[in-house]
């Protein structure tokens, strides 16, 4: 009998136990794959999350909060800085490019960001053309990220009104807001945005933001006086790394202003996330041991049945290698089926949850591509299957076939 056919018949002979074994392996592998996808998303997000802007200038407060709000559109800004500071930064000899950003409003929970148009050219280059329409030119014009357009079904030519705050209904749901805030909310509803373009997928958090002219915040909040104009953040591309240090030192010493190394702030966030991933890894290790135990129990349960099969194979003259592969192969086959199922489930789960994960955390999950850790996962899983199969196989092989049939 063909070895593969023999293994397959053995597996089907105990359908329930085989199915449970395959499921335990599949769930474990799927969990590991999902963790790998998240880890890959974190690394790529950290790498591409802030582009060439090595220094970020904003109001005093948490450096990580400033970085998250500016580049990942998560959380609230640390405050505002004077608009006049932008001209001072741009005149600095160490600065290559500097762009101001204003934020604080939303549309259906997606942040509305005031940003100078040249930001897109500096960060994404000339190879990223608009998916539809064009870049904004005047007050009220907006372009929307690909994720926003997909989620809300927006098209070029659509119009909408924003709301104050970075969370949907932030003002409307606050029963204790002051009359001035109520008036500001009314003014938000009177200001109409016109969508003139839709961005292509950029694979950054900009995919879930709405961009418009820098002066939208001053128009919406009725702040047209040049002396009192404020901006949320200044994104700085230094000419050199040494220049980045001088920029940080110079503007970090100003009152109510902080200048941060963007990479360090992002790295701090990644380190915190890594600690959470390590905690999940403990759960994963437990699942791995449970899967190995499931394989072991499945084969131990079949030992008595296999003893007669092994004895017969040895009596009819089958080679030792054939007999050994017939014993170990069953555990490896169950492991292999569970491995394939786990890889598919893990990538499918990442694909199906990518929109929810991205909207909640700004983390891009890219499924259906090979990750370096997957090679080790495949080898490790198959090795666990082999190791778990050796004990029961050895127990069955040691039986004297003649004594077995005499009994």
From TrEMBL:
Pfam families xrefs: FtsX
Keyword Transmembrane helix: yes
Record bears the keyword Plastid: no
Top-level lineage group: Bacteria
Keyword annotations of the record: Cell membrane, Membrane, Transmembrane, Transmembrane helix
Transmembrane segments: 16-37, 279-301, 322-345, 376-397
Locations listed in the record: Cell membrane
Topology with respect to the bilayer: Multi-pass membrane protein
Major subcellular location class: membrane
Limits of the ABC3 transporter permease C-terminal domain: 282-400
The protein's role, per its UniProt record: Part of the ABC transporter complex hrt involved in hemin import. Responsible for the translocation of the substrate across the membrane.
PANTHER family per UniProt: ABC TRANSPORTER PERMEASE, ABC TRANSPORTER, MEMBRANE PROTEIN
Family indicated by similarity: Belongs to the ABC-4 integral membrane protein family. HrtB subfamily.
Quaternary structure annotation from Swiss-Prot or TrEMBL: The complex is composed of two ATP-binding proteins (HrtA), two transmembrane proteins (HrtB) and a solute-binding protein.
Protein name as annotated: Putative hemin transport system permease protein HrtB
């Amino acid at each position: 009998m063909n070895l593969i056919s023999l293994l397959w018949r053995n597996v089907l002979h105990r359908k329930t136990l085989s199915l449970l074994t395959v499921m335990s392996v599949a769930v474990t592998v799927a969990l590991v794959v999902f963790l790998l996808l998240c880890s890959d998303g974190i690394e790529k997000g950290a790498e591409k999350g802030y582009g060439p802007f090595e220094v970020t200038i904003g109001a005093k407060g948490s450096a990580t909060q400033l970085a998250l709000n500016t580049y990942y559109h998560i959380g609230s800004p640390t405050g505002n800085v004077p608009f006049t500071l932008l001209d001072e930064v741009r005149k600095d000899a160490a600065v290559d490019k500097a762009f101001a950003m204003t934020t604080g409003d939303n549309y259906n929970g997606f942040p509305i960001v005031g940003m100078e148009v040249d930001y897109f050219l500096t960060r994404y280059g000339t190879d990223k053309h608009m998916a539809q329409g064009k870049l904004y030119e005047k007050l009220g014009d907006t372009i929307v990220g690909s994720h926003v357009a997909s989620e809300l079904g927006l098209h070029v030519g659509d119009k909408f009104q924003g709301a104050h705050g970075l969370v949907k209904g932030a003002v409307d749901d606050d029963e204790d807001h002051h009359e001035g805030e109520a008036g500001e909310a009314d003014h938000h509803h009177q200001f109409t945005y016109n969508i003139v373009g839709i961005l292509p997928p950029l694979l950054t958090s900009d995919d879930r933001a709405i961009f418009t002219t820098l002066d939208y915040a001053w128009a919406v909040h009725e702040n047209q006086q040049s002396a009192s104009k404020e901006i949320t953040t200044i994104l700085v591309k230094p000419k050199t790394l040494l220049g980045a240090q001088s920029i940080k030192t110079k503007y970090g010493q100003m009152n109510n202003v902080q200048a941060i190394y963007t990479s360090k702030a992002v790295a701090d966030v990644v380190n915190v996330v890594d600690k959470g991933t390590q905690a999940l890894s403990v759960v994963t290790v437990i699942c791995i041991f449970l899967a190995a135990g499931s394989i072991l129990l499945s084969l131990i349960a079949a030992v008595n049945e296999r003893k007669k099969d092994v004895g017969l194979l040895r009596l009819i003259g089958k080679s030792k290698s054939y007999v050994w592969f017939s014993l170990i192969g069953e555990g490896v086959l169950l492991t292999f089926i569970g491995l394939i199922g786990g890889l598919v489930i893990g990538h499918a789960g990442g694909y199906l949850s990518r929109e929810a994960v991205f909207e909640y955390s700004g983390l891009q999950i890219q499924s259906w591509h090979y990750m370096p850790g997957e090679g080790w996962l495949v080898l490790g899983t198959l090795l666990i299957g082999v190791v778990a199969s050796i004990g029961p196989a050895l127990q069955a092989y040691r039986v004297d076939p003649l004594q077995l049939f005499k009994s």
